[in-house]
Amino acid sequence: MQAIIGKHTKDQARKRGITEEGIMAILNEMPVIFKQSNHDPDAIIVLGVYEGKVWAVILNHITKHTITVRRAWTKEEKYYDEKKRN
User: How far is 26 from 73, CA to CA, in rounded Å?
Assistant: First the structure.
């Protein structure tokens, strides 16, 4: 998946211990597992594993700009596990 990683995402990634390469690995994981954001109709949450941890990359699906990156919440980890098994 193509994406533009913005300054805010890079700053948050650095604080949270994930690299730009890690973000791209998540975005390019196959199959891509994502869900619609509950807060922004233009945003999707892309879930993936990097270095053994489930991460969430928040992405504007229209502009392809990343909004932020963070560790997945517990309910998102469960969603990821369910989708990965199917």
Answer: 16
Please report where in the chains the tokens 């999707």 appear, as a residue: 44
Name the pairing type of β-strands 33-36 and 53-60: unpaired
Angle 72-78-80 from CA coordinates, rounded to 5°: 70
Across residues 71-77, what is the average pLDDT? 97
Is the pLDDT score of 68 beyond 80? yes
pLDDT of amino acid 47: 96
Q: What is the CA angle 43-50-55, rounded to 5?
A: 35
Question: Helices marked H in the chain — which ranges?
Answer: 7-16, 20-27, 74-85
Q: What percent of the chain has pLDDT over 70?
A: 100
